[in-house]
Design brief:
The protein folds into two domains: 3-367, no CATH class; 373-491, no CATH class. It is mainly alpha-helical. The chain is built from 19 helices and five strands. The longest helix is centred in the C-terminal third of the chain and has 28 residues, at 340-367.
Length: 493
């Protein structure tokens, strides 16, 4: 084994260990649990119980139509149990796969050790990937599959071998089957192959890509619609809700909203300028390096499609854009002659890294004294017997998962028995009510910025409080930091 090869392996292991240490630190404390986490976990948990990919927490849109992520989540739950720690660990492990793929790309592009270290650190400390890789949502898996799709596409660019197109197609399709936003990697892969086909005057590779992707997607949705609870019209309605073409949110709305949320005023403004500016620079200064040009186009196409199509465009998906920025940065540095510009690029990259690092430290600092969700699970799970009917917040679902829970997100229109919160309350079937003022705090779980609360959530909380205080007996109070005081009422009739 050569020293160079040994050094590369040693560097990759070091990156992995650093990443794992940072992610395991306060894993169930920072960020706060978000409602999407029990939303997805519920579908995966039901799958492990033999109830297909059905969401009984909200009724729909929780990994029940794009099921690859929930399938993987379900396998983890089956093996290790259902808790926030376990479901977040799935995202942590997806991040390891992403880092491995990114490192392989940088090696394939023949970048220097310095750039490999810097770019992998970009990924590890990015505020977006830091949060995505410690949240029970599909973003980290979308990115992991997408990175490997880019890797095999770059290898194909070098070798022109069909097997590499097929591998890129499989990984891009897997990204899409985790979440609709994964279609971005299908679009960029397809765009590259269209240009390739025009250059070589042959459609063969593009057809391989098309037929393989369509085949995998067809098998996936055949499985989805084997579920007797899944109706085509519901699926169509979900797609309509997620795009700007059939909804109110448009291109400029997405730009304005994303700018406000992503930059947090001026705190992360430099980060946005760096990530988008590098793509533009790559397009302008690519010279004869076609890979820089292709990657810059890929990033800009991804950003444009995101703002144009998705409703609304969430900044947690910005990782699908800046992965191209990282690679363009690496190649611009390597292709530039020695001099001030090269040193300037390093300085810009170092500032970018430090800006992200400051954001990560801030998240941990803000949550340092908070009650961990793991502690909360222990206290809540032992307070209510299984198979009870519970009225509560969706964010308390994990410790109450073996009960029939009703939350602020329950889809009453699709419920077979109760058509509203009032009808549930009036039925006399609720055994326990678990509430806290935390349900209407109106702050984000990462930066802590104030956000508007849906009126339906406020109405639910007020109704639950009134119902608990007039018809229940307070049997337990759980003081916490971050979740306020959680009160458990046993209902009396």
């Amino acid at each position: 084994m050569t020293f160079r090869k040994f050094h590369s392996q040693y560097a990759l292991i070091t990156f992995m260990l650093l990443y794992i240490f940072l992610q395991l630190l306060m894993l169930t404390t920072a960020p706060d649990i978000m409602e999407d986490e029990p939303w997805y976990a519920n579908t995966a948990y039901n799958f492990t119980l033999g109830n297909w990919f059905n969401n009984t927490n909200t009724g729909h849109q929780g990994g029940d139509t794009f099921i690859l992520y929930t399938f993987i989540l379900g396998m983890a739950i089956k093996a290790f149990g259902c808790s926030l720690y376990v479901t977040r660990m799935v995202s942590v492990l997806a991040g390891i796969i992403a880092i491995w793929g990114l490192f392989r790309i940088l090696k394939a592009l023949r970048t220097s050790n310095l750039i490999q270290i810097l770019v992998v650190l970009f990924f590890i400390f990015s505020n977006v990937t830091y949060v995505a890789c410690r949240s029970s949502r599909p973003e980290s898996l979308i990115l992991a599959f997408g990175i490997w799709a880019i890797y095999w596409l770059i290898i194909f660019h070098e070798t022109d071998k069909t097997k590499h197109v097929l591998l890129a197609s499989v990984f891009a399709t897997f990204s899409f089957l985790c979440h609709p936003h994964g279609i971005l990697f299908l679009i960029t892969t397809g765009t590259y192959l269209i240009f390739y086909s025009l250059r070589v005057k042959s459609l063969r590779k593009l057809l391989y890509f098309s037929f393989l992707c369509i085949g995998i997607i067809t098998v996936h949705f055949s499985i989805v619609f084997m579920n007797p609870s899944m109706y085509l019209q519901n699926f169509i309605n979900d797609l309509k809700d997620r795009n700007s073409v059939t909804n109110d949110t448009g291109f400029f709305d997405n730009i304005v909203n994303s700018y406000k949320i992503y930059t947090l005023g001026i705190k992360r403004l430099y980060i946005l300028i760096f990530e988008t500016g590098i793509l533009i620079a790559g397009l302008i200064y690519s010279g004869r390096n076609k890979i820089i040009q292709y990657l810059a186009i890929g990033g800009l196409v991804t950003l444009t499609v995101s703002f144009t199509v998705f409703n609304p465009y969430s900044t947690r998906h910005f990782g699908e854009v800046f992965i191209y920025s990282f690679l363009v940065f690496a190649l611009l540095y390597e292709s530039w002659p020695k001099g001030r510009v090269k040193k300037g690029l390093l300085l810009l990259g170092a500032i970018y890294l430090l800006n992200n690092l400051a954001g990560d430290v801030y998240i941990l600092y803000k949550k340092f004294n908070y009650t961990s969700y793991a502690q909360l699970e222990k206290q809540l799970s032992g307070s209510i017997p299984d198979s009870s009917v519970v009225l509560t917040s969706i964010n308390f679902w994990y410790p109450l998962k073996n009960n029939e829970t009703y939350t602020e997100y329950t889809y009453w229109a699709g419920h077979p028995t109760f058509k509203s919160l009032d009808s549930l309350i009036q039925s006399g079937e609720v055994d326990y009510t678990v509430i806290s003022r935390y349900m209407v705090f109106g702050t984000t779980g990462t930066s802590g910025r104030t956000v508007n609360i849906l009126s339906t959530k406020v109405d639910f909380y007020q109704s639950a409080v009134e119902y608990a205080e007039t018809s229940g007996i307070l049997i337990k109070k759980i003081p916490t930091c971050g979740f306020d005081t959680i009160k458990i009422y046993q209902m009396k009739y």
